[in-house]
């Protein structure tokens, strides 16, 4: 996730706080665990902070999510639950949750206030944040606008960082599956199982669930599609910028266990009992040290029973319709040019550093305006190639639609100029129709038009597994030759980016030992 202007986030947070208490009436439903009472807000029933699993604390730290503990009476579901433990990393994240805690396994549900004649399609959105930060309470993920489109929308919290993805030999030994790590992915799967059992109480159809996410959320979607435990829990998938098929992928369990042992030893924790007894804050702070390992998705042999690339290459993923793509400036050129101006000489030096004897081939596939080429290479190496690979492989198994989002955010309300391109995460407010929840930017009529178009495509896909609909430019499947990528902007339309050579070059690099 990319940072926004930090100086004006206090104003945004204040506005969000003012907007958090609209005039409401109560709404009550019965679900697994007991009865909950939410609020009716502007034609939408909102239920926040619903537990979908037992708090993963104490002996349940680094365990698979356990069933919800029933409650007596009516549980209030008007406010968000805790966000999962995390360090403050990105200034564009604005949380409405009360605190960060290990007790954080909650979902939030938005549904139309009026009962529908038939069960409604469902959207389950996984937040981004690099698997180390983020929360379902962020205003950009608000589900009310989707609910007004006749969709039951949910956001999901899942364990993050060391709490969600630590692998360790002690954890592996105690597991009946002889696996460890991926607790955050198990949380997501548990939330999907909860949706299957409970979403009808909110008017949703458990047979019409779309999973979606951006960045780490998109990585999560691509992982859920190959997880045996998630089979049959969703019918469609949306991925915005990211997949488990990138350069890092999902390392093997043995490698992740070594990192876990080194992390524990750095804290003087010799046993699994010591790790579970350690204060959560101590683990969190240690995770933030420069030499700490990066905790992420692992090929553990259970949650992911084989390497993601092997699963997708063999066509073992869920054969569901997929809508996925990325933004025009996922990473800036300076990230590979030491923040210097892009010149042909500097770009050539970077190609030589990265690719050595293959530099001439790299220069051939990135043979266009040097500023654009450096920007694209930077994004491709980070997150774009993996997203393309996911789309390319899945298109062989099921209907797939690819987008390229190019609308830059406008100038900020304090006068900072518009961005040069569509940066990482910029599309979320547009797709979810939540521009008004972000007070940082001076949204224009063009921005609102882009949002209406993008939300319409997403809503159509959630309803029917196809983004096309009345009044929208035709969006062909990836399998059609030629112009088959939808450019999403003020003037949207299908075009042929002629970028396959770029990604096939990275394919060859990725295949090297």
Automatic annotation (TrEMBL):
PROSITE patterns membership: CARBOXYLESTERASE_B_1, CARBOXYLESTERASE_B_2
E.C. no: 3.1.1.-
Domain Carboxylesterase type B: 27-493
Top EC class, one word: hydrolase
SUPFAM superfamilies assigned: alpha/beta-Hydrolases
Entry keyword annotation includes Secreted: no
Gene3D superfamilies assigned: alpha/beta hydrolase (3.40.50.1820)
Keyword Isomerase attributed: no
Single Gene Ontology MF annotation: hydrolase activity
Signal sequence segment: 1-19
Keywords assigned by UniProt, alphabetized: Hydrolase, Signal
Family: Belongs to the type-B carboxylesterase/lipase family.
Matching PANTHER family: CARBOXYLESTERASE
Name this protein carries in UniProt: Carboxylic ester hydrolase
